[in-house]
Automatic annotation (TrEMBL):
Belongs to the dihydroorotate dehydrogenase family. Type 2 subfamily. GO terms for cellular component: mitochondrial inner membrane. The chain crosses the membrane at residues 67-84. It is found in: Membrane. PANTHER family: DIHYDROOROTATE DEHYDROGENASE (QUINONE), MITOCHONDRIAL, DIHYDROOROTATE DEHYDROGENASE (QUINONE), MITOCHONDRIAL-RELATED. One of its GO terms (biological process) is 'de novo' UMP biosynthetic process. It comes from Mytilinidion resinicola. It is an enzyme of class 1 (oxidoreductase). This is Dihydroorotate dehydrogenase (quinone), mitochondrial. The keyword Cell cycle does not apply.
Length: 496
């Protein structure tokens, strides 16, 4: 007896066969069925449309909010980068410097931390720099040793003792950066602590004693800097590329590697070299020049530090003339087409008429190109303002052995510049020069000591100096010091 299969079951089985299912499979298909819009209830269609609109609205709102957040972050990061890396930003003086002083009570540790930070930031392009090229107007240009400097402000040696950050310092806007002092052989300097702050006076006492990595180490650092520059401008990184840069064929000064700027390298003798052995002292200076002269625009011969016993005795006429004559000869033998200029750095404490006259005579007789007037002093000036009573801790610091630096030195620096300018302009007292390079060309004066603002810099220049150099002012005012001084100079010139 046959049993009839319902038509609905047959339709289901047939679908199973056509869809790849097993014959006889009776489970309904899971295929999505599209209904004609006319068959969808009106209420359902309205609810679905409202839900989709709400979802789209939330999506648009989210995208807009994310766009605003992203734009704001990019804007603030960009603005923050431009602000923090601009030397005009007050953050450098009012936040960075106080923070370093608070974190590092020891002045030398703070200086080292600042140098490390500046070096690291420069490698990533995050270093402070002068923006807008304010020197382009040419209102502060000066000519030095055949070079046109963008401005007459320089940084003194001591800020960068071992050529760790010459490029970041040049980016801060000075016309000249001086590095060093550098001894022939490495030496540790005096025992620590050896740097002491006097915050109420914006002054310092230091007795570093020429801690130095040595001439060979620093020369290799400077050589690497030259080769990296050559590679960056497409010359390569070999010896020939180095030669092109050093022979000024790359269109930049061979020391600074920056148009309108110069690099001065300060050399001195080792502490272990006897002061009374002039031949040994001459060998020390000649060694330093032989290694470092190639990578400098100016060689500075330092015989003025108060922290190396007996060094200042070399400022007497006879020994100074012998030493400087040797230095001029060594500079003339530097393996480079253009030779570095030579300056001698003298002490502000050697200020008697006889001492100043003797130094000027040694300058003329040796044939050096000029003099840097000023250094730290063994003397302890009165606090500013007059009558001010120093806190006990700062008063104790004044009793520390070492060289004093700060704004109080400015009047003496200004007076010494006037005296050196007058005596040097009078020419040599005798004409029996020991060096064939001696000439009657006007000698150049750089000045350092207590210069803290644009008005003082202008006074120094009007007194006869070609360059005004700063050191302690940068320690207290930070990366924007040079820009601030130049701005003050321009404002005062406009008023006049």
């Amino acid at each position: 007896m046959s049993t009839a299969v319902p038509a609905r079951t047959l339709r289901t089985m047939a679908f199973s066969r056509t869809s790849g299912g097993f014959i006889g499979h009776t489970r309904p298909s899971l295929r999505r069925v599209s209904l004609h819009p006319a068959r969808v209830p009106v209420a359902y269609r309205q609810a679905s449309t409202a839900s989709e609109l709400a979802t789209d609205g939330r999506s648009v709102l989210t995208r807009t909010r994310n766009l605003l957040y992203g734009t704001s972050i990019v804007f603030f990061l960009g603005f923050g980068y431009l602000y923090i890396t601009d030397t005009r930003a007050s953050i450098h003086e009012w936040l960075v410097v106080p923070a370093l002083r608070m974190i590092y009570p020891d002045g030398e540790e703070a200086h080292h931390a600042g140098t490390v930070a500046l070096k690291g930031l420069y490698q990533f392009g995050l270093h402070p720099r002068e923006r807008g090229n304010p020197d382009a107007a040419g209102d502060l240009r000066v000519e030095i040793f055949g070079h046109i400097l963008d401005n007459p402000i320089g940084t003194s040696a001591g800020i960068d003792k071992n050529a760790e950050v010459p490029s970041p310092l040049l980016a801060l806007g000075p016309g000249i950066v001086e590095i060093g002092g550098i001894t022939p052989l490495p030496q540790p300097g005096n025992p620590k602590p050896r740097v002491f702050r006097i915050p109420s006076q914006n002054a310092m006492v230091n007795r570093y004693g020429f801690n130095s990595e040595g001439a060979e180490h620093v020369s290799m650092t400077l050589r690497q800097r030259v080769r990296e520059y050559a590679l960056r401008v497409g010359l390569g990184i070999d010896a020939e590329a180095e030669r092109i840069v050093l022979d000024s064929e790359a269109g930049v000064p061979p020391g600074s590697l920056v148009p309108g700027r110069l690099l001065a390298v300060q050399v001195t003798k080792n502490k272990s070299t006897p002061d009374n052995d002039i031949e040994a002292v001459k060998r020390d200076f000649a060694f330093g020049i032989a290694h470092l002269g190639k990578y400098s625009d100016i060689i500075v011969v330092n015989v003025s530090s108060p922290n190396t016993p007996g060094l200042r005795a070399l400022q007497n006429v006879a020994p100074l003339t012998h030493i400087l004559t040797t230095c001029v000869k060594a500079a003339s033998e530097v393996d480079r087409k253009t030779k570095p200029a030579v300056l001698v750095k003298v002490s502000p404490d050697e200020d008697s008429e006889e001492q100043v006259s003797g130094i000027c005579e040694a300058i003329w007789q040796s044939g050096v190109d000029g003099v840097i007037v000023g250094n730290t002093t063994k003397r302890r000036p009165d606090p500013i303002p007059e009558g001010y009573s120093l806190p006990p801790k700062e008063a104790a610091i004044l009793q520390e052995q070492g060289g004093y630096s700060g704004p109080q030195l400015f009047p003496r620096t200004l007076e010494l510049v006037k005296r050196y300018r007058k005596m040097l302009d009078e020419g040599p007292k005798s004409t029996d020069a020991e060096s064939p390079t001696e000439s009657l060309r006007r000698k150049t004066i750089f000045a350092t000591g207590g210069i803290t603002n644009g008005g003082q810099a202008l006074q120094i220049l009007e007194a006869g100096a070609s360059v005004a150099m700063v050191y302690t002012a940068m320690i207290y005012s930070g990366a924007g010091t040079i820009t601030r001084i130049k701005t003050e100079m321009r404002n005062e010139l406009r008023e006049k």
